[in-house]
Amino acid sequence: MSLLSIRNLHASIGDKEILKGVNLEINKGEVHSIMGPNGNGKSTLAAVIAGNSKFTVTQGEVIFKGKNLLEMPIDVRAAEGIFLGFQYPVEIPGVSISNFMRTAVNEQRKYRGLDPLSASEFLKLMEEKKKVVEMTAKLANRSVNEGFSGGEKKKNEIFQMAMLDPIMSFLDETDSGLDIDALRIVANGVNKLRSSENAIVVITHYQRLLDYIVPDFVHVLYEGKIVKSGSKELALELEAKGYEWIREELESKQK
Ligand SMILES: Nc1ncnc2c1ncn2[C@@H]1O[C@H](COP(=O)(O)OP(=O)(O)OP(=O)(O)O)[C@@H](O)[C@H]1O
Ligand SMILES: [Mg+2]
């Protein structure tokens, strides 16, 4: 049984259909990359899986760990182990990263029937996980994403992922706006969090990221559907040929 099984997923915003029959099977231990032109539904797919109520699922099903994901409220999805790193992370002024994370970690523990972490246990966990993304104490003490540079937001995102230890993560353009060093740090962070017990979907426009986070599969999401899947070489082929190639291929299939 797959960890996450997306079958014929259709989703709309208002009367505009954005996802038009997405099929994707993800197993534990796998890293998948989703690529595709702007505005074709990549972020929408991640948002629908995470439970964003802006979108209406009109057809299809999503099974996570054998359960119907679409029936779960957004907080239950997170507690069950779904994590979404945002393309544009939100700022939460006045709430420190540590308070924010303490609440999030303890909510998850409560759902799983575990006692909340004590202050010292929590600090120990923070110290350990800050190392994953080389996060400085100074940054960790600031309000969530408030005034963070693009790179700091992305670091914080992977830090959150490390703290929550999700089973199924979606990272949406984690590479955008990162300098060379930050890209390496963030990618190394993701690699440290990879395990045989979890799965990660990396949404990216650039093959470059996939030199650092080597995916098992690459998919092209085009006009609301996954129209092509392959190994990591597919990302290189896309970079060389562009999306025009995908369009021509689809057109020739239709003929
Ligand atoms: N709130 C909204 N109202 C109207 N249209 C929306 C809304 N949110 C998303 N869309 C539309 O849905 C389509 C898919 O958007 P989505 O963000 O999923 O694309 P994407 O593949 O992630 O693109 P990018 O590569 O630019 O991040 C776009 O045409 C977008 O304008
Ligand atoms: Mg997007």
Describe this structure as you would to a colleague.
- The protein has 255 residues and is α/β, with parallel strands linked by helices.
- The protein has one domain (4-254): P-loop containing nucleotide triphosphate hydrolases (Rossmann fold), CATH 3.40.50.
- Helices cover 40% and strands 27% of the residues.
- The strands form 3 sheets. The protein has a 6-stranded mixed β-sheet with strand order 6-9-10-3-11-12, with helices on both faces. Strands 2-1-4-5 form a 4-stranded antiparallel β-sheet, with helices on one face. It has a two-stranded antiparallel ribbon with strand order 7-8.
- The two termini are 36 Å apart.
- Magnesium ion is lined by residues 42-43, 87, 172.
- The site of magnesium ion has 4 residues, from helix 1.
